[in-house]
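Q: Give me a protein?
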Amino acid sequence: AQLPAGTIQIAWKDSGVAPALSALTTYTIQLVVGGNEASSQTPLITCANNLQFSAGSTATCVVPAGVAGSTANGFFLQFTSVASEGGTVINYSSRFTMTGMTGTTGTAQQQGVTALNGATAGPPTVNSVSNGAAAGAGGAGAAGGSQFTVPYHLQTGLTKYAPMQPVPPTKITANQFTPLNPTSAYTVATTWMPRPSVATTLTASQTFSVSSMENTAAAASQPSGDMAKFLARWKD
């Protein structure tokens, strides 16, 4: 398929594979150029960012001509969805060609596309939805959660995963503070850096919950005796 640079229309529907659309809450759509391996992919445009599925099943994306070259079958859409019961599922569109492009496609991305020998299938689906969400959608549960345990600096790809935020204790007893995680090495940039390769960071859904109940204790009675006399002095 070929699409001209400029405004493109995007539409989607339930594939029938768990999780169902009804089990998903928000989505992010990105236009990507490159091969099927994360190391040869570059996100170009974020077409929709953290939008609600309840808002509809279409989106519009404006693609500037200068973001890449007209690489044949080098473009695809990455669709990252967040499940209501935890985890994410990343779906990919088939590949297509963007015509009228005036930019340059990176060498690694071009090589990744060339290695596919003209194949038009996008990368495979990455289903990291929790068992509860997948089962609720009427399908077998997917193995979810393991990606959130991989140290951030060891992760690759367009999407990185952060662990669940801890729940504050009911009482603070520590008098010395230590970081939750070890520090990371860094290098100060002295020249222009390449475009960031990480497009989205997803944090594990919080499983902590609280419950409340009615207070059935009777209201305290009105003051009597000396206290009643004391309060009566201030009525006027």
